[in-house]
Design a protein that fits this description.
It is globular, with a radius of gyration of 15 Å. The protein has one domain: Immunoglobulin-like (Sandwich). It contains 1 helix and 12 strands. The N and C termini lie far apart (about 40 Å). Strands 1, 2, 3, 4, 6, 7, 8, 9, 10 and 11 form a 10-stranded antiparallel sheet that branches. Strands 5-12 form a two-stranded parallel ribbon. Helices cover about 10% and strands about 45% of the residues. It has about 150 residues and is mainly β. The model has no long low-confidence stretch (mean pLDDT about 90).
Amino acid sequence: MEMKRKEFKITLSYGKRIPCLWERGGGATNTGYAMIIADMSGGKKKALYIRQRGELAGREHALIPISVGDYIIEASHHRKDFHLTVWKIVSVSIEEEKAEATKICEFDMNEWDIEPPNYLLMAIEKAKEKALCYHCRSAHYVLSPSSQ
């Protein structure tokens, strides 16, 4: 069975021509959305930039370089009834400013269609945490640009 594909619009970082996606999202009173980026082993990635000012609530918080093999975890909820999708990046095109990802697994109606790999469980929990974070103003799953 072939998995569906989805395109993600990527952001090119400031003149460096590095494909990036934003960790973004946050919660409202009864709803929320978050997008987390993890490396190919499910770990945190080093952000190029973390926003500290401006309108931050529920917006873009950390600019993260992406590459083939990285994961994108999307979490949304309504009254803590979660819908989660785990994507694996399969191609990145700087020229077309897009990344293509394959759906690995999905959580809906309180069950997974396919159990996610154990190494992604922390990133999945952080995506849920960010989607619940009321008027979220910070990154939840990144390494700071100054960390080694």
